[in-house]
Amino acid sequence: MNNKIQIFEDKKIRTAWNEVAAEWYFSVSDVVEILTDSKDVKQYIKKMRKRDAELNSKWGTICTPVEMIASDGKKRKIQAADISGILRIIQSIPSPKAGPFKMWLAEVGKERIDETIDPELAFDRAIETYQKKGYSNEWIHQRILSIRVRNALTDEWDKHGVQKGIEYAILTDEITKAWSGMTTRKYKNLKGLTKENLRDNMSDLELVLNMLA
User: Fold this and answer.
1) What's the pTM?
2) CB distance 40 to 104 below 8 Å
3) Helix (H) or strand (E) holding 78
4) Which of 36, 46, 56, 154 is 20 to 30 A away from residue 204, measured at CA?
5) What's the whole-number mean pLDDT along residues 154-168?
6) Statement: residue 38 has pLDDT above 80
7) Pairing of strands 23-27, 75-81
């Protein structure tokens, strides 16, 4: 699973891409919260399942535990569903936001499938996203280069049997310590970051040092 944060109307939705199934999985609680503006998402979901017997009977099939970033910043398994599952859940939510959300889901799915066919599109979309966030062209160039370097590095790790998760984290820590003298977690704390991507919050010089390390 490749974890990622998707944005819908400036609100974050945790997602994970399953390479084998070629499907996006979306955090059910994030989707329900956005569409309902509920202050207690867990209770809303319980009531929603109670009033929709069919949805409740198929809940175990529609939803599956997927590892994503939890509210405490750690990776945990949370209830998630693919696009068809999320659309089924939306049917039980009387919300005017549902229509645009369905269109957004379709677009997200199409973009990722297109990127699988032509990986260069992923870089084009990343550049557009960074430009919208106000990053300079010089910084974007360094960031895209760092992504390519990172992908090449993780490809080598995969070839040598390095396991994603804790082993990736250990090796990444060694790289960060090599040029900064701190672990990745300590460096994020220094910058006041929690769930944000550390490299997205590096300067041009930091990105270069990280790549050299």
Assistant:
1) 0.48
2) no
3) strand 75-81
4) 154
5) 84
6) yes
7) antiparallel
